[in-house]
Design goal:
Length: 436
């Protein structure tokens, strides 16, 4: 979901406020803002909310009459911008064991380490599952103004039963926690199942408890727990990011820097071999740079207007192509709303550039430096003394920002949706693509 998107539903009939379960798969953008997952509130002094804090802690509270009736704040941080987390929240105030009245499971494992914990008194009523609005991706109380910025999938709410995580996922033969797309559960009167295999907010539980998109645009990303696509990595960057921001689930990069406050971000996924394709729409091309960088970039001290480190190569807004301060040639200048395609051939250490579907440099590949000791990634950056670029990345999700590609090109691998034809032999940088 984009940073202004959230879902909403209200039922005038309260459900079981002592016992319920919420299960959801979440890929967060880790953008240093509060990330509300779901909430219900009467006002700021009476609210139930689950959210990821700016620092990455997962926090869940039922706040009633200006005090915590129950609260959990995890010690662990959810800061992996490439991961889908499976989160299960169990509220069971009827339980005789105080520590079992609020339970959190992350990727199938119950959390036991908390920096804050308040156990509800026995038979405490939650505000969630009452008659208040149920919001997903939004803070009902208005304390936090940010909506959730990332992706969600397979959201189940169970009214009246406390289920552990094993009902909604399982460990595969490789020890990886995977999704159960059709769990055997009893949803109860107010239970629902939304965002199943797409962006439908129509309830799939059979109860007809349909949500509405109350704000923003809900997109249907191909990125899912069973096939994770690359995004822009907020944790791997260089330069000055004070005036840089990521949005739309870390697929849109915007810079408002001036002077020499350049910034530069890697893709979350990288590779050491294979052939990979991605597209970048330069909504505002001023100062934009699209390129490839090696892992050694993270310790590189080179960062000037025309400087990409010795482990990478960059296509600049003015048509120049550079490795560090050395020009590798000149391509067509990038204009506003142009789409730059990058075909990264790590088997032959070559990169092929495309502009709005037309191959550049007469179809001749340019050499990728081979001095890198680790993975190679796609890179987006500003690289001008007056940079103001906005770059929307499509790593195969089929969207630029919140707008679907206009006319999907061919893609022999069948992995990912791109605006233009994917060059023969190339595929999207995703977990399925990496395992072809």
């Amino acid at each position: 979901m984009a940073s202004t998107t959230y879902l909403q539903w209200q039922n005038i009939t309260a459900g079981n406020r002592n016992t319920w379960t919420m299960s959801m798969w979440v890929k967060t953008s880790v953008n240093n803002d509060e990330q509300p997952l779901f909430s219900s509130a009467l006002d700021s002094n009476n609210q139930d909310m689950v959210f990821i804090e700016a620092g990455g802690n997962l926090r869940w509270w039922t706040y009633q009459s200006s005090s915590y009736a129950g609260q959990l704040r995890t010690s662990r941080l959810l800061r992996d911008a490439n991961a889908w987390y499976h989160l299960v929240f169990v509220f069971d105030s009827t339980n005789s064991t105080a520590d079992d009245r609020m339970r959190i499971y992350i990727n199938g494992v119950q959390e036991t380490s908390f920096t804050a914990r308040v156990n509800p008194s026995q038979n405490t009523n939650s505000l969630w599952n009452g008659t208040l609005w149920r919001n997903i991706g939004h803070d009902s109380s208005g304390v936090y103004t940010d909506e959730f910025d990332g992706s969600m999938s397979h959201i189940h709410f169970i009214d009246g039963t406390a289920y552990d995580a094993s009902y909604f996922g399982e460990t595969d033969a490789n020890g990886v926690w995977k999704i159960n797309t059709s769990p055997s559960v009893t949803y109860g009167t107010n239970g629902f199942f939304i965002l199943k295999d797409g962006n439908s907010v129509t309830d799939q539980s059979g109860n007809g408890n349909n949500f509405t998109v109350a704000g923003g645009t809900l997109t249907d990303t191909l990125d899912c727990p069973s096939n994770v696509f690359a995004t822009i990595n907020p944790l791997q960057w260089n330069g000055n990011i004070t005036n840089a921001s990521l949005s739309n689930g870390n697929t849109t990069y915007t810079s408002s820097a001036t002077g020499t406050d350049y910034s530069w971000f890697y893709s979350t996924l990288g590779a050491t071999s294979g052939k990979w394709y991605a597209e970048f729409k330069c909504v505002d091309s001023g100062g934009a740079m699209i390129g490839i960088g090696g892992n050694d970039f993270a310790t590189s001290s080179y960062f000037t207007a025309n400087a990409i480190n010795s482990d990478g190569i960059g296509y600049y807004y003015n048509g120049s192509v550079f490795i560090k301060d050395v020009s590798q040639g000149s391509l067509t200048a990038i204009s506003n709303n142009d789409i730059v395609g990058v075909a990264m051939d790590l088997d032959n250490s070559l990169v092929y550039w495309y502009l709005n579907g037309s191959v550049q440099n007469s179809g001749t590949g340019m050499s990728i430096p081979t001095s890198n000791t680790g993975f190679y990634h796609f890179v987006v950056a500003d690289a001008s003394s007056t940079p103001t670029p906005t770059i929307q990345a499509n790593f195969g999700n089929g969207y630029f920002g919140t707008t679907a590609v206009a006319s999907a090109g061919t893609n022999a691998s069948g992995i990912g949706i791109f605006e233009y034809d994917v060059p023969t032999g190339y595929t999207a940088l995703s977990t399925k693509g990496l395992n072809l």
